[in-house]
TrEMBL record:
Residues 407-435 are annotated as: Disordered. The keyword GTP-binding does not apply. It comes from Krasilnikovia cinnamomea. The lineage of its organism: Bacteria, Bacillati, Actinomycetota, Actinomycetes, Micromonosporales. This is Mg/Co/Ni transporter MgtE. It comes from the Bacteria. Residues 355-413 form the CBS domain. PANTHER family: MAGNESIUM TRANSPORTER MGTE (PTHR43773:SF1). One of its GO terms (cellular component) is membrane. SMART domains: MgtE_N. Keywords: CBS domain. SUPFAM superfamilies: CBS-domain pair, MgtE N-terminal domain-like, PRC-barrel domain. InterPro entries: CBS_dom, CBS_dom_sf, Mg_transptr_MgtE_intracell_dom, MgtE_N_sf, MgtE_transporter, PRC_barrel-like_sf, SH3_actinomycetes.
Length: 435
């Protein structure tokens, strides 16, 4: 293990146990504040395990940290959900992007202001990891280019521990944007309400839309309410129509009307349609934008469409075939072709000749239990939904079914933990000490 470790660089690194099995990923580091101006002590890491559970890893359990991974030594771990104590701060959540003042080396003068971009810790003679170095980006006052980054000793920095209104977002955003939307949403839940709203507002419309789809409903509503209405409408346009409809359904009726009117008509139309269906039915949970092609399209065209990296795996798993128009509601629905079938057919083959039409599509009023049984019976990841005129109006995907079958608070980090799984009880211990 190196003598100095920079903590922001540990974010998202995998954590392995002594046998080489992955435990989770690093999401933050925990420091304990100490008296006077003594450097904070790093007491552990926060790791995210399966099912988004975040646990505390005592720093004494870590045997190595490098640019590739964090490795733990032998010993028991507390598998209870991590909770920050009163005298503790998180590196990424609380200290990164802080506006600080760096005192001159001679101690004279007002000092130079800057923003914290990383913190370095070192091991002292007592085997304690202490914050000893701070990487700061200077404030130049020139918009044309950013100030350079330099390192200083911890004792020359003032304002690192203080009010959160002196904290920006740029460096935290740089770390978050390396994560998947679900992980980014999970990280936002660790932040204070004010910090979370500030970071969310700084995201691009596309990224914020992806993150909102992964957040609990109350957080979605809170973040959207903090945006001006024009920006909120722009973000809703970039969400999947079914997710936008679910979010709008949580808002007061008057606010729904305002936001839908601010959206582009072609973006608002499918959302309005989805909101017209009764909750808990195929119509209310389906996506209105599956991959749809006409029967004279070729296998090569279909493969090109499902290669689109912006499509989710379940949406890209099949192509629905219908007569023109190919936007929902389409012409007469003819059937679907799974991507595995596409891979087995000649590129020039027409979809109309290989379409699978032996499964009855769903009607918009089909209930979730009925949908679940049908999909489980035929091992499907998506099913078409047609109206009485047999026009395709959307598709229900397995992630839609899961999302609406799980408890409403399943995305919420504050929701109570399930009972420990068999085998976990032997390692669940109260966090009585860091070791």
């Amino acid at each position: 293990m190196g003598t100095r470790v920079y903590l922001a660089r540990l974010a998202a690194l995998p954590v392995f146990d002594p046998n080489g099995d992955r435990v989770g990923r690093v999401r933050d580091a925990v420091v304990r504040l100490r008296t006077t101006n003594r450097p904070p002590q790093v007491v552990g890491l926060v790791a995210e395990m399966a099912l988004r559970r975040r646990i505390f890893l005592p720093i004494g359990r870590v045997t190595s940290m490098d640019a590739e991974a964090v490795v733990l030594g032998t010993g028991m771990l507390n598998l209870r959900r991590f909770e920050k104590r009163q005298n503790e701060l998180l590196i990424l959540g609380d200290l990164l992007d802080r506006r600080v003042t760096v005192l001159p080396e001679d101690g004279e003068g007002a000092g130079q202001t800057g923003t914290v971009v990383d913190l370095g810790m070192e091991l002292n003679r007592n085997n304690e990891w202490l914050i000893t170095r701070v990487a700061v980006r200077e404030h130049t006052g020139r918009l044309a280019r950013r100030g350079h980054v330099y390192q200083v000793e911890y004792d020359r920095v003032r304002g690192l521990v203080g009010p959160t209104d002196a904290q920006g977002t740029s460096n935290l955003l740089a770390l978050l944007e390396q994560m998947r939307p679900a992980d980014m949403a999970n990280a936002l839940q660790d932040l204070s309400d004010a910090r979370r709203n500030e970071v969310a507002a700084a995201l691009s419309d596309r990224t914020l839309a992806d993150v909102l789809e992964e957040l609990p409903e109350h957080d979605q509503v809170e973040i959207l309410a903090r945006l001006d209405r024009e920006r909120a409408a722009d973000v809703l346009e970039r969400m999947d129509p079914d997710d936008a409809a679910d979010l709008l359904a949580e808002l007061p009726k008057a606010e729904q009307v305002v936001l839908l009117d601010l959206m582009e008509p072609e973006e608002a139309a499918p959302v309005r349609q989805l909101m017209s269906y009764r909750p808990g039915t195929a119509g209310s949970v389906m996506t209105s934008e599956p991959v749809i092609l006409t029967p004279d399209a070729t296998v090569a065209e279909a493969l090109a469409r499902i290669r689109n990296p912006e499509l989710s795996p379940v949406v890209a798993a099949q192509v629905f075939v219908a007569r023109a128009p190919s936007a929902t509601p389409t012409g007469k629905y003819l059937g679907m072709v799974h991507f595995q079938r596409l891979l087995r057919e000649p590129p020039a083959a027409l979809l109309g000749g290989i379409v699978d039409n032996d499964l009855d599509p769903l009607r918009p009023e089909a209930t979730l239990p009925e949908i679940t049984k049908r999909m489980a019976t035929y091992d499907l990841v998506a099913m078409p939904v047609v109206d009485p005129a047999h026009r395709l109006v959307g598709a229900v995907t397995v992630d839609d079914v899961l999302d609406h079958s799980l408890p409403r608070d399943w995305r919420d980090r504050d929701a109570p933990d399930d009972e420990p799984a068999p085998g976990e009880t032997a390692v669940i211990l109260p966090r009585l000490s860091d070791e």
